[in-house]
Design a protein that fits this description.
Two copies of one chain form a homodimer. Chain A has 406 residues and is of the alpha/beta class. The radius of gyration of chain A is 32 Å and the shape is elongated. The longest helix of chain A is centred in the last third of the chain and has 19 residues. Chain A is 18% helix and 28% strand. In chain A, a hairpin with a 2-residue loop joins strand 20 and strand 21. Chain A has four domains: 157 residues, MoaB/Mog-like domain (Molybdenum Cofactor Biosythetic Enzyme, Chain A, 3-Layer(aba) Sandwich), CATH 3.40.980; 52 residues, Molybdopterin biosynthesis moea protein, domain 2; 88 residues, Beta Complex (Molybdopterin biosynthesis moeA protein, domain 3); 68 residues, Beta-clip, CATH 2.40.340.10. In chain A, helix 4 crosses helix 5. In chain A, the strands form seven sheets. A six-stranded mixed β-sheet of chain A has the order 7-4-6-5-9-8, with no helix packed on it. Chain A has a six-stranded mixed β-sheet with strand order 16-13-17-21-20-18, with helices on both faces. In chain A, strands 22-24-23-25-26 form a five-stranded mixed beta barrel. Chains A, B: One of its GO terms (molecular function) is molybdopterin molybdotransferase activity. Chains A, B: It is an enzyme of class 2 (transferase). Chains A, B: Its EC number is 2.10.1.1.
Chain lengths: 406, 406
């Protein structure tokens, strides 16, 4: 298959969206749920606080016993028990009695207020009180913050540490979340070798394996990596053997039109290529297909093109598999440089942005990964624009905002 | 030990800094290096490109053979070989000859330029050429982007996907990075139980275990969790048994002054408490100590206080153990609310920030974790300020910028 006609990025996204798979749920231990996505609403099994709770260190009392007390009118109560946080008292406070409590203690039966410690002097069983409290003063009533049965989290929430704590407080030690996609990466190319000290003839180090592993990690995903030579039968088998076990296949290399560029042809043969060639720069030779219902993202073999394709066309799909909407915040910056572009093509210029302005990451247009290291953002030139002028306000996306990070 | 005198946050940070431990290096597989921190500078073992590389699909030629050719002066060369990316030709181009190459191919010996395919018509072995190229045209020369021996990354770089790729391209399949701290969390409290459907008497669900696990995950760290009752001997043993195996101990609970608040006393007994009580809100009852050279962070038992303490006093230390400087970006926002504060105390108000303004996450001052769920940021009231006015420009930190995320 030849890369003859390029489709616009917007059209490529439409096709991806039409073929979006959203995975099922699975129940996992809550402690493993960081950055996972809730499948259902969560309702609390408990009131919070679960009991009338003292909000102060002091004495649980019957408020009416304190009403007229003051430094000039000291009353004396009888201390019948002392409890710390985590303990409770079996005793019931009767008229004239008090129980020492800590912040967080359950207020013992009979008590209806907590008198702060600083308004008291204790002497054995005797408690001199120098101040008054009104009923319910210094008590956080049961269910004040969360009522049993109350919805505490909405489905599709991405779980941060605080949501994990809230789910625990609601009485759940497990959570139902969307499955994470299992990803198979098949790096293609006869020329590829592992990193090492010597390179023979046309050998090229397989760096895509590492960049794509890193990009998947930035979405919280692991990957199983394989390598295929540019041999139709070998690649065909590797693809077909992966569709059962994995939710997504990503390939690199073999998406151009040169001799040996076989990936598109193989996918067309064993499944369907839905598009090949997108009007983006970098990353034009990108393909998307489906084999045995498994989506296959065909990236370029060029590291920077593959990264750009991943950022532009793959991240959104992978996140949506967990029902996460990918919508990285764009910032406006003044461009320090003029950059030409073609109408109909979307450019993702590797750029270095400050709080005010943006420019190319490198002076020269380099195809290599060093430019991605020097960049911190993409400067986006929309498909409806023919380049940008120096001094123009443009949109950028910081690389770190592409990651799954809440 | 009693929480009598509070030290300022700036003083607490000074003491933490004086007791900062930076861990040793370890050599790991490059594919596992995402968000790890380089221990040393990295120098490339290779030129990049590793050979003179064709930048176009076309024909490697001797430029001089093409000099006068044009659509009106078509010359004919002899095609002696054809190679795709990843392959190379053993042949040497002699005067009057050409070899077909793909983008990325090594330029065969003898050739000094690549003529783009569109200026040619091939017919068997014959290649009609309709254009001229100058020497070195359409060739990316060996070492153009990276020279062998060139420093490609500085020590202390946090590795993203592109740095992983660059290290691979430099010839390394492993990387020396700072060790990640091994963290032991000891949650204390007789009252704590696992999440479940029923709560008896003073029982409280152990939510700190989950929030702190989540916060550690946000720094790329795992944690080993234990639970101790409020028993001096039990806690002492758990602390002492952890100092050999772990780089950091974090405790929750037992840092106030109530009966049963034993953590500070235990650390004082088996090691040294360097400070206890910090003028921050929330999170005043925070302690820091050292036992057998192992730093011990003593957090409050209250989930929101513990989270605030972690964000304020623990993250920076843990990151610095890997030689990462923690400096989350602060944004300026207009406060929609007046918030009182005390001179000398730093407040971290759970807040909801938009692109323009900020307000409390909850109307009421709540001690519970729900407020952290509703918030997306901290509004910071510096220790040198007595509160903020409605309409005042204030500093906020988005929660997600507290995480390790590049």
């Amino acid at each position: 298959m030849f890369l003859t006609e390029l489709i616009k990025l917007s059209e490529a996204k439409r096709i991806l969206n039409e073929n979006q798979i959203i995975l099922d749920g699975e129940i996992i231990d809550l402690k493993d749920s960081y950055l996972r996505v809730l499948k259902d609403d969560i309702y609390s099994k408990h009131d919070s606080p679960p009991f009338d709770k003292s909000a102060m260190d002091g004495y649980a009392v019957i408020a009416e016993d304190t009403f007229t007390s003051s430094p000039n009118n000291i009353k004396v109560l009888k201390i019948i028990d002392r409890i710390g946080a985590g303990n409770y008292s079996e005793k019931t406070i009767e008229k004239g009695e008090a129980i020492k409590v800590a912040t967080g203690s359950p207020v013992p039966k009979g008590g209806n207020a907590v008198l702060m410690e600083e308004y008291t002097i204790s002497n054995g069983e005797n408690l001199e009180i120098h101040g008054a409290v009104t009923p319910s003063e210094n008590i956080a009533p049961q269910g004040e913050d969360i009522k049993v049965g109350e919805k505490i989290l909405e489905k599709n929430t991405i779980l941060r540490s605080q949501e994990m704590g809230l789910i625990a407080s609601g009485g759940y030690g497990k959570a139902e979340v969307y499955k994470k996609p299992l990803v198979k990466l098949i790096v293609t190319g006869n020329e590829l070798v592992e990193p090492g000290s010597t390179l023979k003839k046309a050998e090229v180090i397989n760096s895509n394996k590492f960049t794509i592993t890193g990009m998947l990690k930035s979405l919280g995903l692991d990957v199983e990596i394989d390598h295929s030579h540019d041999e139709i039968q070998e690649l065909k088998e590797k693809i077909l053997n992966s569709t059962d076990e994995y939710d997504v296949i990503i390939t690199t290399g073999g998406t151009a039109i040169s001799k040996g560029d076989i990936v598109i042809d193989v996918i067309e043969d064993v499944g369907e290529v839905l598009f090949h060639g997108v009007a983006i720069r970098p990353g034009k030779p990108f393909g998307f297909g489906v084999v045995n219902k498994t989506p296959v993202f065909m990236l370029s073999g060029y590291p920077v093109a593959a990264m750009g394709q991943f950022d532009t066309l793959v991240r959104e799909y992978l996140l949506k598999m967990q029902n996460i909407t990918f919508n990285p915040k764009k910032h406006k910056r003044i461009s320090n440089v003029k950059i030409p572009s073609s109408l109909g093509r979307t450019d993702f210029v590797r750029a270095y942005s400050t709080d005010e302005s943006v420019e190319h990451a490198l002076n020269k247009g380099s195809g290599i990964i060093k430019s991605m290291v020097e960049a911190n953002s993409y400067l986006i030139i929309d498909e409806n624009k023919e380049g940008i002028e120096k001094g123009e306000t443009v949109e950028i996306i910081y690389f770190e905002l592409l990651n799954l990070n809440k």
